[in-house]
Amino acid sequence: MSFSIKNLFSEHSSEKFELHEDHLNKQMVRVLKTIGYDRNYTKAKGQYLYDEKNTEYLDCLSGFGVFAIGRNHPTVIKALQETLTLELPNLIQMDVSVLSGLLAKKILATTPDNLQKMFFCNSGTEAVEAAIKFARYTTKRKKIIYCNHGYHGLTMGALSLVGDEIFREGFGPLLPECHSIPFNDLAALENALKNNDAAAFIVEPIQGKGVNIPDDNYLPEVQRLCKKYGTLFVADEVQTGIGRTGKFWAIEHWNVQPDMICMAKALSGGFIPIGAVAITDNIMESVFNRMDRAVVHGSTFSKNNMAMAAGLATLQVIEDEKLVENSAKVGTEIINHLNSMSSKYEFLKEARGKGLMIAIEFQAPKSLALKAAWATLEAANKGLFCQMITIPLFKDHNLLTQVAGHGMNVVKLLPPLNLTNKDRDWIVTSFDQAIADTHKVPGSIWTLGKNLASHALKTQKGA
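The structure corresponding to this sequence follows.
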């Protein structure tokens, strides 16, 4: 009998939760079943997912930003099929490849002029690890500065720069000489840099956990301060880059030139793991400064032909379909529509973001009945209110969203960049109805809230 992935998927797709409970992370299965996200998806196309009943869902997570061009884009599929059938030499190691050179050239054409070289790896967290090593070697300093609530990955080096304790707890001791400061606080940054001992300041131009946007003068001043104190300025654009915020790079909103840009996620269209760092000539020449240091940092599977082909095809799709421009247009329309609802909904504080990186934040209401209901949820678990938004969005409106971070009353949208006007209206109408339901106390949505609060309290007692 010939081997067939199609047959394996068809025969076992209904067993996926049992397989994960038996052989993988059963807690993830528990989470999905608890919040009602346990669907059996059978197909994905563009911005849509489909279950075994052919129900269509609008994916506003896009694999945490990986599927910026949508799922299963035919241009990338064709590029990968062609790469597989060409019998190309791949990962010879004692050689350099054509496709990696072409992809490096194409990426660097989009970055600030001071960035002249590329380093490829396999993920965002690997890109951050490379940036840490490159900064330390180039500056001959040890200290790395990062921001509270920042997120840079979960390997040990990158984890040392993650600003939320829930990810760090129990995994220490982490990398030494890593120091956190508040985001969007220039005085704190200068205080951290003033001893001239910091190798790098690594920052997300827009923080992913909460979609926190800095003041307009923040990143330009970050660049100035880093230059003043001899510290490398590293922009982590793993999530914000490649069109996500309505510019190709989020740093373009503030016209800054970092010394390194970390990238990954959307770069391969979601097909092949890929990461990269765009760096200056000086950094490249400092780290790889002799022939015997040509392999001082690298990764076995980096620059593999499939990843490079996917990257080239993905960048072509973004250009041909004008997805950066679409991200800016549709994202602004969604934010404006949602903000127009704030006058009629006490719970809705604001919608904010850039492009299709959007946060919808909720707040404590003023009216007595709503205030009491809010307080009950907050007492059980901070940020629980957002589950009363995301769960109905999914179950009643077929809209897949997420809470923006632990203990936050923020729902986050990170959809593919090819959203249509129909998708825009789907999102706005669904939020309108879901938020309206939370203002009906008592009501069915608050029955869900009580169940969530009860489950949260039981979980805390069992911990």
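The longest strand covers residues 348-354.
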